[in-house]
Amino acid sequence: MTKIEDEMESSVHDCWSITTDITTILKYSDDITRDIQSLTDVYDVKFRKLMDEVDQLLDELHNVRDTYDELKPIFDGKDGDTADKDFLLTPIVDKDLFGNPSDSGVGLDNVYIGSFGDKNDE
């Protein structure tokens, strides 16, 4: 997970503990009104933090969607000005030293491989 997702998950867990905190206050508190007010202040901060992290995550999602929307026409080949982007659409072909496709066999008939170690009987 990313940092934003980790922080958001932590904030969600912090906010889920509100029911446990309320139960504890009801069980052990001498002044319930004061303790509930304090709890309200604490959870106001926790929920604000959670909402900030949700906003960050949404911003990141929108950025990813915008990038996808910008790049999709290039990879689909539907963009009107793909002249300079054609290299993205053409397959990569391995070439030999002279620019010929490596599996074409072009140029192999011009190569003379002599026999090594043979003695001329002349």
Describe this structure as you would to a colleague:
- The protein is mainly α and 122 residues long.
- The protein has helices at 3-16, 18-28, 32-76.
- The longest helix is centred in the middle third of the chain and has 45 residues, at 32-76.
- The protein has one domain (3-90).
- The chain is rod-shaped and about 100 Å long.
- It is built from three helices and no strands.
**Average pLDDT across residues?**
76
What's the helix count? 3
Q: What's the number of extended β-strand segments?
A: 0
Distance between the termini: 78 Å
Rg computed from alpha carbons, rounded to a whole number of angstroms: 35 Å
Low-pLDDT residue spans: none
Shape: rod-shaped
Order of helices and strands: HHH
Number of domains: 1
Q: Tell me the β content.
A: under 5%
Biggest sheet features: none
Structural class, please?
mainly alpha
**Helix fraction?**
55-70%
In short:
With 122 residues, the chain is an all-alpha fold.
Which descriptors apply to this entry?
122 residues; mainly alpha
How would the blueprint of this fold be written?
Blueprint: H1 3-16, H2 18-28, H3 32-76
